[in-house]
Design brief:
Strand 8 and strand 9 form a beta hairpin. By secondary structure, the protein is α+β, with helices and mostly antiparallel strands. 36% of the residues are buried.
C-alpha cells in the first residue's frame, strides 16, 4: 500500500477519527486507526472503541492498494509536525514509512484484518437538519447529562423528532434541561432515541454553527450522523476540498425517565432577572460556600433577590440583584453550580425564574420559549 495526501487533508482525517481510538483498551487494535484505499483517488480513515465509531473518505493519490492500522494518536502527532506539502504513507512489511520532504518516520503497524467492523450506514434512512440547530440543542443540554454510567437511563440525551419539532432532554437527577427547536423545512420528524453522553459530545465536535445541513438516522440500535467537512480551504484558482465523514454511536436501550412529570406545570411566583448579573452574583457568592454542597440561599423580596451563603469554616457572602418581582417574600436554597450551569448555556439578556414553595424546584425559561431548565432545591 502506498498513498499520498496533502498535510492539511491528512491532519483533518486524523482529527476526525483519532479522538475516538481507545488508548486505554486492553485490545491494542482499538488504539489504532484503519487506513485503507478506496479506488485510485480516496483513502478511508476509521476508528472505533466498539461503542462509538467514525470513518471518512478523503482525497488522495493511490499508487498501490491496501490497508493498514497505525497508532492513532502517534500518527496524528507525526502528521501535525510534518513540514507543509504532500505526505506519503508506504507500507513496508509490519512497518509503515511516513515521509514528507526529507522528514521520515517509521511506525509499527497491526494487520487491517484484525480491525473491528465499523457499523454500516448503507441501509440507514437519513433525515436532514441544520447543523446550527442540532449544535445549539446540544450546547444547552449537555451540561445536565448524568456522568454516572451505572445509571444508563440518564447517562445520555433523549433526542426526539415530533412533527416539526426537534426536542432534546437531559437530566442527572438534580437538574433537567429541555430544549425544543421548531424547524421550517418541509417534512415531519418521527423518532425517539437516547444517545449516550460520549456520543453526544462527539457529535458536537463534528458540528459547526452554520446553516449547512447534516444527515441523521438510526438503525439496529445505533445512531448515525453524516456531513461534509472542509479539509482544504479554497484558493483563488481552486475550490475548497471536502470529505464525507460518518459518525456512529450505539444507543442506550433503556427508557428515558418521564421528564414531563418533573417539570412543574404551574408555579406561583415568577421573577424576570438579568441573566448576566445573576450569573456574576452567583459566581462571587459561591467562592466562600461549602465545598461539599455549594449551597446558596435566594432571598426574594419586591424588586430584588439577595444571594446569600454562610460557611462556618470560612465566612459568608451576599450580593443583591435587582429583578422584576412583586410576589410574596420567600427564601429557597440551591446548589450554586447548578444555577450557574443553566444560566451559562443561555444567551438571553433576561430569563424567567419560576418558583413555588421553598421545597419545590425552580424553573428557568428563556425569552424565546425554547428552553426549560429545572433545578431542584436544597435545604440550607
Amino acid at each position: 500500500m502506498k498513498v499520498t495526501l496533502s498535510r492539511q487533508c491528512f491532519s483533518a482525517a486524523l482529527a476526525r477519527t483519532s479522538g475516538i481510538a481507545d488508548r486505554k483498551s486492553s485490545m491494542q487494535i482499538l488504539s489504532n486507526v484503519l487506513v485503507s484505499t478506496e479506488g485510485d483517488d480516496r483513502v478511508r480513515f476509521a476508528a472505533t472503541d466498539l461503542s462509538l465509531s467514525a470513518e471518512g473518505l478523503f482525497p488522495a493519490r493511490v499508487d498501490k492498494d491496501g490497508a493498514v492500522t497505525l497508532p492513532a494518536r502517534t500518527l496524528h502527532d507525526v502528521v501535525k509536525n510534518m513540514p507543509d506539502g504532500p505526505i506519503t504513507l508506504n507500507v513496508d512489511g509490519d512497518a509503515v514509512e511516513v515521509t514528507a520532504g526529507r522528514t521520515r518516520f517509521r511506525l509499527l503497524s497491526l494487520p487491517a484484518d484484525d480491525f473491528p467492523t465499523i457499523p454500516d450506514a448503507a441501509e440507514v434512512s437519513f433525515f436532514d437538519v441544520k447543523e446550527k440547530h442540532l449544535a445549539g440543542m446540544i450546547d444547552r443540554c449537555a451540561y445536565s447529562i448524568s456522568s454516572d454510567e451505572t445509571r444508563p437511563h440518564i447517562n445520555g440525551a433523549l433526542f426526539q423528532g415530533d412533527g416539526k419539532i426537534l426536542r432534546m432532554v437531559t437530566t442527572d437527577g438534580h437538574r433537567l434541561s429541555k430544549v425544543e427547536c421548531r424547524v421550517q423545512e418541509s417534512g415531519f420528524y418521527n423518532f425517539n432515541m437516547v444517545i449516550p453522553q460520549k456520543g453526544i459530545l462527539e457529535i458536537r465536535r463534528l458540528l459547526g454553527d452554520s446553516e449547512d445541513t447534516v444527515s441523521i438516522g438510526s438503525l439496529d440500535g445505533s445512531v448515525f450522523l453524516k456531513r461534509k467537512v472542509e479539509v482544504e480551504k479554497a484558493t483563488d484558482d481552486q475550490p475548497a476540498v471536502t470529505a464525507d465523514v460518518c459518525l456512529s454511536s450505539k444507543l442506550i436501550e433503556t427508557e428515558f425517565p418521564p421528564y414531563d412529570q418533573v417539570i412543574p406545570k404551574q408555579q406561583e411566583k415568577r421573577m424576570i432577572v438579568p441573566r448576566g448579573k445573576l450569573l456574576d452574583a452567583l459566581k462571587r457568592v459561591s467562592i466562600v460556600s461549602s465545598d461539599r454542597t455549594l449551597g446558596v440561599k435566594f432571598v426574594l423580596s419586591e424588586g430584588a433577590v439577595e444571594i446569600v451563603t454562610d460557611n462556618p469554616s470560612i465566612g459568608g457572602s451576599s450580593d443583591v440583584v435587582d429583578v422584576s418581582y412583586d410576589g410574596a417574600d420567600m427564601e429557597i436554597g440551591f446548589n450554586a453550580k447548578y444555577f450557574i450551569d443553566v444560566l451559562s448555556v443561555l444567551n438571553d439578556e433576561e430569563v424567567a425564574v419560576e418558583l413555588s414553595g421553598d421545597l419545590d424546584p425552580a424553573v428557568v425559561k428563556d425569552t424565546a420559549g425554547e428552553f426549560v431548565g429545572v433545578v431542584m432545591p436544597m435545604r440550607i
